[in-house]
What does this fold into?
Amino acid sequence: MSGKGRLSIVGLGPGDVEWITPQAMAVLNGASDLVGYSTYLDLVPDLTGSPVRHASGNRVEIDRAKQALALARSGRQVALVTSGDPGIFAMASAVWEVLDAEPEDWSELEVEVVPGLSAMQAAAARVGAPLGHDFCVISLSDYHKSQAVIEKRLTHALLGDFVIALYNPASQTRCEMISRALALAAQHRDAATPVILAHDLGRAGERHEVSALSDVAPETIDMRTIVLIGSSRSRVVLRQGCKTVYTPRTYPDEPV
Amino acid sequence: MSGKGRLSIVGLGPGDVEWITPQAMAVLNGASDLVGYSTYLDLVPDLTGSPVRHASGNRVEIDRAKQALALARSGRQVALVTSGDPGIFAMASAVWEVLDAEPEDWSELEVEVVPGLSAMQAAAARVGAPLGHDFCVISLSDYHKSQAVIEKRLTHALLGDFVIALYNPASQTRCEMISRALALAAQHRDAATPVILAHDLGRAGERHEVSALSDVAPETIDMRTIVLIGSSRSRVVLRQGCKTVYTPRTYPDEPV
It folds into this structure.
């Protein structure tokens, strides 16, 4: 192809088609090529076009970024597809790492980021308003940083009494970090602090539960779970037999 | 009306119609009544229905929440409209505060939260991938908490080397807190740390700039600005004459 290519890094949101923005849908419908982790490509709804699909495995982020960039440079209209928001623990940083390492190679190429709803937002919406006050967002994956760094971040988030959203809390081969994170939280927060576990948001089998911090069973948490830990101010409101959670807008001078 | 009413707390996203999710659009199209701060009601696009509009001022959040709840209890299909995500520094917490204070009054009423893209996501997308690693989200408004609490939170966010998103950085009557926040950041971060200021996202006159921390002019920041402060790892990549910013996925054991 000889036309002017473009790379769009597109967020689908957390799985349900009702959360895909019109901007994302327009980009997907105009794409000549879709690139992405196979699980995410499966979330793409029916499109008006018939783009070529380039599916890849989960952990080859830099290879996938380079593949998408190279296709775009060859003149293709490429949508690099992610779930959630591509800017939050997803592919946008991987693409920028390539742009930064090889600036001359990609200087002429048009690259855009198309944001999407992130899992924490959908999880919060399902249970009320737990993210209604200051919060921190932390990935528990030790693939890109050490456990020491993760624990330092968690400690500051706890000392600052932030609500905490935990991404990548566990995987098939990694389940210790979430137990350590919950134990650390228990050192700083009341046993009754509400914790939200949301599984498979916007997909078949979606479910969520609200537990007290002391009652959370780490073995129920996997790579498709998002975890929200309340601050000292977060409260449970029982509605129609279900626990909902919110964090008030007002914060007293001394933590309760 | 005698039918079963419902309250939907709906996020429009950061202003542009291309960011309104299909879920939000369906709720707005099905609403009998729209309730909201007048500026946000003006962002609602043309609808298939002709809902009654109940506009109110900015600071009467609890009154607005009660008005929306009462309308819904009377059998109306009410959309309580906010920009961004209603769960992030917006109306969902205010509604839940009322539900919590008067649980009996509202126990039968159906209440749902419809999430939306938040300003930090749109700002990040405009410049690259600054939120690509762990980050904190802090409101600088001292309307609901003291400056001491804000400074404590900022300090922990800085000590944890989080990227920091600042909401409500200033208002017409309050401009000191952003100066203090930037001064505090300068104590912990390099003078060259990239800072993103995004103004009027998704609206007429949208603009953004990327500056070094030491060069940010606080007087250019107002209530319609979102501020992102990079971590020690965030990097500027010059592309086609413009500064883009990303935070790498990888974090070394010792901060650089």
In short: The first strand of chain A starts at residue 6 and ends at 11. Chain A touches chain B through 81 residues (CB under 8 Å). DSSP finds eight helices and 13 strands in chain A. Chain A has a mean pLDDT of 94.
